[in-house]
Amino acid sequence: MRNAIAIVVMCLSVATTVQYADARDRSGVFKASELIGMKVQGTDGKNLGDIKDLVINPDDGAIDYAVLDFGGFLGIKDKYFAIPWDALQVASGKDKIVIDATKRDLKDAPGFDKNHWPDFADLAQTTVIYEFYGVPAPNTSGEHKATR
Question: What average pLDDT does the structure give for the chain?
Answer without folding.
Answer: 75
